[in-house]
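Why does residue order matter? Because the sequence determines the fold. Keep that principle in mind as you read this record.
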Amino acid sequence: MREDVLGRANVEDSPELDRYYNELGQQESYALWTVANSIEPWQPKPSSLPQLWSYQAMRPLVLKALDLVSPEKAGRRVIALENPGRKGTSACVGWLYTGLQVMKPGESASAHSHASSALRFIIEGKNAYTVVDGHKMDLNAGDFVITPNGTWHDHGVEASGETTIWQDGLDMLMVNQLDANFYAVHPETVQKSNYPLNDTAQVFGGPGLLPAGGEAWSKPYSPLFKYEWGRTYETLTRAAQATDGSPYDGIMMQYVNPATGGPVMKTLGAHIQLLRGGERTKAHRHTGSIVYTVAKGKGYSIIEGKRYDWNKSDIFVVPSWAWHEHANASERDDAVLFSFSDLPSMQALGLYREETFADNDGHQKLAH
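Structure:
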């Protein structure tokens, strides 16, 4: 790709150069100027496309898997969401993976660990649980759970529970690109829980309080493995009474490692945001890919000039450097969006950049 711009590659083709390129190819090499403009774009040009997956359409397909495969045979009974612009990569956006996992009462999945960082957002169900490095916690709709890289983890649904569906999110595709992934199955298949139920939430989940002395935490991820929906939503609604929030994201909170104030894991971060009744945010864009799940309410988002209407439990993605804004479709009730992203990776590598929309009202025009 040639560009007639000073400082960019602009070499004309010729028979002599074609012969030269062929000689280079025989030595497993190439001339940089033949690809330089493509591999060093002026700005991010993601192949990922904005996409929305309707939970109403996906739910029956996810439940159908209950009768077709067992968790023992499948390893994990998960329906993965793949971006139409990234076919064959298993990516939902950028190098992020997400899928919908389903388990019925009395089922459990074997314990394992991997170099990838993982998280889950509970969409529906009752009396599910997960165990992370021996810490067992119960799971309910709206709860957010992390399984940091290198930790043993397994999960299931108690016999007294209900069929549960949760959203998985992992950075494994990025870790694979770095040729750094590992996977191991627990030698005893199922972990023994060595702590009281929900102990990390009880010890580290206090409002503005951290344990001193013997309970100090030094690991590079949050000790608060579970972030409960009730406390999270209460925090959002209280904040909405005290602040206008961000013109680009409404009332937005970051799930944090209480020991450091930083993201919950080194490579993956998560946020929760509330849109008041009738609220519409202004448009902005930034580096980093985002996966949104509608935790409450209904509304729409405009991504790169196209409107995407969403309802509770729908999942949609915003590619890196894509203009986006959100709106609550209800005038009375609030709407809440959960999201996870690779923003901690962007920030750690010094690659984060943000830009606001410069139109007079800060909103995108819909593409026709």
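The CA atoms of residues 294 and 313 lie 5 Å apart.
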